[in-house]
Amino acid sequence: MPVNFNCTEFIRSAAAPKDFLRDGLPQLAFAGRSNVGKSSVINRLVNRKNFARVGASPGKTSQINYFLLDQKAYLVDLPGYGYAKVSKAERDRWGRLMEAYFASGLISWGVMIVDARHKPTADDVTMANWFFETGCPLIVAANKLDKLKKSQIEPNLQVIRDTLALRGEDELVPFSAEKGDGKDQLLKLLETAIEQ
Ligand code: GDP
Fold first, then answer.
1. Would you call 35 exposed, middle or buried from its count of C-beta atoms within 10 A (0-12, 13-18, 19+)?
2. How much is the pTM?
3. What is the Rg, in whole angstroms, of the alpha carbon atoms belonging to the chain?
4. Residues 163-186: pLDDT tens digits?
5. Which numbered atom of ligand 1 lies nearest the CA of 145?
6. Range of the domain at 100
C-alpha cells in the first residue's frame, strides 16, 4: 500500500521522555545540525510550505515533534544541534532528551540531514554514531545540492560517506529542499522503511 505523504498531521511535541509516543507505529527519526535545512526537507517531503517551522530560531527548540504519516508511521523531527549561541542549560536539556530518545528503542529508521557543500562536522559524526548504536538503518540526505557545481557533487558525496563512515546498507541521497532534487528517491526509501 503506497504511503500518502500529503496526508500528514502534527500530533504533539515531547520535551521529556514521558511524552514520547509508544504506540508501536514505526518512527522515522529526522536529525540535523541547526540551519542545515531539516525543516525545509520535511516541508518538501510533505508538500507543505510551513509545516515544520523553517528558520525557527536555531537551537531554541529542545523538543521532539511528532507528525503522523498517513496513519502508518511517525515522522519524528528531532531538535537541531550545533548552534553556537545556545546556553549550557539548553544544551544539557537537549542532550538528556536525545539520550533518552535514542536509548528508548523507539527509532525504526534514522534520517540525517547534512550539508552537501561541506565535510560533516564532529557533531554530525556523533549523531551518525548514535544512529549506528541503535542498530537501525540510516538514510543520509545531503541537502542544499543546488549550491554545488555538477563536478563537485560526486566528490562531496564521497567525503560525506567517508566522514560519517556510512555502512554498506546505509543510503546517501543528494537532495535540494529548494529545488526538489532527491525528493522521489527519499520518499521511496521512506516508503520502504514504513512498509518493513
Ligand atoms: P533547519 O534549522 O535545519 O530546520 O533549517 P531550515 O529549514 O530553517 O533552513 C535553513 C536555511 O537554509 C533557510 O534559509 C532555508 O531557506 C535554507 N535552505 C534549506 N534547504 C535549502 C536548499 O536545499 N537549498 C538552499 N539553497 N537553501 C536551503
1. middle
2. 0.95
3. 16
4. 999 999 999 999 999 999 999 999
5. 23
6. 9-195
